[in-house]
Specification:
Shape of chain A: globular
Distance between the termini of chain A: 10 Å
Oligomer: homodimer
CATH class of the largest domain in chain A: Alpha Beta
Largest interface: A-B, 37 and 37 residues
Strand order of the largest sheet of chain A: 4-6-5-1-7
Strand content of chain A: 15-25%
Number of helices of chain A: 14
Order of helices and strands of chain A: HEHEHHEEEEHEHHHHEEEEEHHHEEHEEH
CATH superfamily of the largest domain in chain A: Enterococcus faecalis V583 domain
Radius of gyration of chain A: 20 Å
CATH topology of the largest domain in chain A: Enterococcus faecalis V583 fold
Chain lengths: 413, 413
C-alpha cells in the first residue's frame, strides 16, 4: 500500500474538481434518495432523542414549512409517532450549514463538478439572526423560507440557466484575495455572487420590484454564497473520497451532539465523538451558557482547504469570531502541519500567495496531537431562538485516533 | 504659531469629513467655474506645449466627444488657435484619474461632505484598457463615453436620488477590510458600490435590458468606484485645507509633466517638480520605454490616508503593481513616519486594525528625506494608445523642500 500515492490522488482529485453552480431544483426531485417523510440534517446520524435543541427547532420549522404540522406540538407528535425519518445530508450528496435541515419541498442549489461529473446540493441561505438553520421557527422564519422557495429560488434558477453557470472555484479563489476565509467571512464572495447574477436576475424576474427585492436580499446577506460554496466543497471532497489506502479526511460534520469524520480510504463509516464547545464572541445578551455545542456541515470548507484553514487571509474575521489577526495567521500556519498539500488554486496573499493547507491527514493529526481548527457560528442550545455568537472550535482528537485504528485494521498494519 | 494645533485641526477636519455620493449633474451646470470652451485636466496647471501625450490624447478625445472637432487634426487646430482653455480640475473642486479630462457636457458625480458642507466632482469611470483617461480617443472610446453620459449617468443619478445617497467613508472603510487599498485595488469597493445601487438601478431604468447592461458595466469594472472615491477624498482634503499654520499636504496631483502639491497653511499655491518614472509591471507587449511619467489626480487618495498609504491591507495588489506583500506592508509602515496621525475611520486588519497613516506633514517628509509613496496606473506616452501598466512612484523631494521654504517665509521662522 503506497499511502503517499493514495493521498496524492485524493488531494489532487479534491483540488482539480471544478464545481459550477448550474441551477436549483426541488429536493424531492433532485436530491438522491430524498423521500416525502424524510428530513435531512447536518452531521453524522442522530436520533430525535439525542438531537440538539437547534436541530430539533429546525426540524419543527421544516415540518411547519412543509405543511405537515401547524405548530411545535403537532410537529413533535408526528416525530414521536415515528412518521418522520431523519438522515444526514451527507448520505444524500447534500450539505447544510448549522442544523442543516433540508425537507422535500425545499429548493436546493445544484453544483456540478465539471471535472469528475459528481454533483452536490445545498439549501438556500436565509441571512443572519432568527433563521431555521439556527433552530428558529417563528412565523417570520417560515414566511421567509416561503418567499425564498416560491419567489427567489425560481428566479435564481432561471438566472443561472441564462448565465450558463457560475464557476465557484474561481469565485472562492478570488474571494480569498479579498479578505474572505470561505466559511464565516464571505463578504466578498457574496458580493461577487450577487453581482454576477444581478444582470440575469433583472432579465428573468417577472417585474423590476421582484428583481430589486431579490438583488437586495442577496446583496445584504454577507453569507448568501455560503451554501453554494458548501455544495462546491462537497463536490470536491466527494471527488477525493474512496481512494483505496488514502488517510485524507473527506468529511467533517457536526449534528450539535456529535462531531463526525469520514476518511477517503475507509468507505462510508463515520468516526464520531462529542461536539465541542465553541470559543466564541457572543452577541449582546448571550453568554456561553446559552450556546449549543458545535453544529453544522459547514466544516466541509475546512475539509477542502478553506474556512479556518484560510484564516490568515481573512484577518478582519477576528472582529466576528474573537482573537487577533496574528491568531488567524497562526491558525493557517498550524494547519500546514496536519495537511497533505498546499492548494493549487486557493492562495493567501498575506503568506506570499502560498496555497492553503489542504487535505487533512489523520496520521499527521494523531502524530502532532493537533486537531483541525474550524470557525463557526454558534446557535442557542434551545429550539426556537437562533444564533448567539461565532467562534473557533476543534473536533475531539479521539475520532482521528479511532479512524487511524480502523485504518490499521483494514489495511493490516 | 502652534503648528501642532494647526495640524491637528487640519487632519481632524479631513477625517471627520463625511462624503456622501448624492447624484450626478452636467459639468457645465454643476462644476464651479466650468465654461463652454474650458477643459479641465489632472494635476497642476500646464500649457498645451508642455502637455504630456496621454493628456493631449484625452483633450483631443474630449473635443471630439463635445462635437467641437471631428478628428485629431481639427481638435489640435482648435487648441492651437487658442479656442480652448485648460485649467486644473483642482481649481474647480474636481478631480480626475490619469489625464483627468473633464469637458462641459460630461456628467460628473457630485459628492457632498455632510460634516462641513463642501462638495467635489469627478467624471465617471470608463473601465480599463483603451479609455480617454489613458489618452485613447478612438471611436470605441467616444461611443462608450456617449453611452455613459446618455444612458448610464442619468440612471445612476435617479438611483442615487432614490437611495438617499451613498456614504462613501463607510464604503471605503469596509473595502479596506476586504483587500482594497482605495486607489489601484478597488475590487471590493466597486462590488459594494454596484450592489448598493443595483436594486435602485433596477427600479429607475427604462427597461430590464438597460438595467442589466448598467449593472454589468459597473460590476465588471473593478475601478467603478474609483472616481466617486476620488471625489470623496477631494472633499476630505478640501475640508482640511486653509488652516492657518498647518504643514499638512492637502493636494498631490500630476499632469504627466509635473507633480504638484499644495499645503493646508499655504493657500492655493502649487509647488511643482518633474513627474517621476513609475516602477511598474507592464502589460504584455509594453516596456518602460512606452511609459508616460506619473499622471493623474488619483493621488488625492494617498493625500487622505488611503491608496499607497493603505497598501498593507491590500497584499494582493502586488500582482498588479509589482513587489511582494511584504513591500506593501513596509510601504504603509514607512508612511507613518511622514504623517501627522492615524486615521480614525480607515484601518488595516493586518496591522491589528491600526488606523492608516494620514496627513502628510511637509516637515517630516523633509526631515526624514522620505517622499510619500503612491501607486498608480501607467499611460502610454503617446496620445491615442492607453494604459500600459501599473506600479509605484514618489513625487520629487524638491517640492516638499520648496514648500517648507515658502512656509518659513510666510510664517517667519
Amino acid at each position: 500500500m503506497d499511502i503517499e500515492k493514495a493521498n496524492l490522488e485524493a488531494t489532487t482529485r479534491m483540488m482539480e474538481a471544478r464545481p459550477v453552480l448550474v441551477g436549483l431544483g426541488r429536493a424531492l426531485d433532485v436530491v438522491p434518495g430524498m423521500r416525502e417523510n424524510l428530513l435531512l440534517h447536518a452531521g453524522p446520524p442522530v436520533t430525535w432523542e439525542r438531537m440538539a435543541g437547534p436541530m430539533r427547532g429546525a426540524a419543527i420549522g421544516a415540518l411547519i414549512f412543509e405543511g405537515k404540522a401547524k405548530d411545535e406540538k403537532e410537529a413533535e407528535a408526528l416525530i414521536k409517532a415515528g412518521q418522520i425519518e431523519f438522515e444526514p445530508c451527507h448520505h444524500h450528496r447534500a450539505v447544510g450549514p448549522m442544523a442543516g435541515l433540508l425537507s422535500p419541498s425545499m429548493l436546493v442549489y445544484i453544483v456540478e463538478n465539471k471535472t469528475h461529473g459528481n454533483k452536490a446540493y445545498s439549501s438556500l441561505n436565509e441571512g443572519r439572526g432568527k433563521v431555521l438553520r439556527m433552530g428558529a421557527y417563528s412565523q417570520e422564519v417560515i414566511s421567509r423560507l416561503g418567499w425564498m422557495n416560491e419567489v427567489m429560488g425560481p428566479v435564481l434558477h432561471e438566472a443561472l440557466q441564462m448565465s450558463e453557470g457560475l464557476d465557484l472555484r474561481t469565485i472562492i479563489a478570488k474571494s480569498l484575495q479579498m479578505g474572505d476565509d470561505g466559511h464565516n467571512r464571505m463578504d466578498a464572495g457574496s458580493l461577487i455572487y450577487t453581482n454576477a447574477l444581478a444582470p440575469f436576475i433583472v432579465k428573468v424576474a417577472k417585474d423590476s420590484a421582484t428583481a430589486a427585492e431579490i438583488i437586495r436580499f442577496l446583496g445584504e446577506n454577507a453569507l448568501s454564497i455560503l451554501n453554494p460554496v458548501m455544495a462546491a466543497c462537497k463536490t470536491m471532497a466527494d471527488a477525493g473520497h474512496g481512494v483505496e489506502g488514502s488517510t485524507i479526511v473527506t468529511t467533517m460534520a457536526r449534528n450539535g451532539t456529535d462531531f463526525g469524520i469520514r476518511v477517503s480510504g475507509l468507505g462510508d463509516r463515520w468516526f464520531t465523538g462529542p461536539a465541542g464547545r465553541v470559543k466564541a464572541l457572543y452577541f449582546p445578551g448571550f453568554t456561553e451558557e446559552d450556546a449549543n455545542p458545535d453544529i453544522g456541515d459547514s466544516t466541509i470548507t475546512e475539509t477542502t482547504g478553506i474556512g479556518g484553514f484560510a484564516m490568515a487571509g481573512a484577518p478582519a474575521i477576528v472582529t466576528f469570531i474573537s482573537g487577533t489577526p496574528k491568531d488567524a495567521i497562526n491558525t493557517t500556519l498550524q494547519m500546514y502541519e496536519i495537511t497533505y498539500t498546499e492548494h493549487k488554486y486557493f492562495s493567501i496573499p498575506q503568506l506570499d500567495f502560498r496555497g492553503t493547507p489542504t487535505g487533512i491527514d489523520i496520521r499527521k493529526v494523531v502524530e502532532k496531537g493537533m486537531p483541525p481548527r474550524v470557525n463557526t457560528g454558534v446557535a442557542h442550545k434551545d429550539p426556537g431562538i437562533g444564533q448567539v455568537g461565532a467562534g473557533v472550535v476543534s473536533p475531539p482528537m479521539s475520532i482521528f485516533e479511532d479512524a487511524l485504528v480502523a485504518y490499521a485494521e483494514q489495511y493490516g498494519f
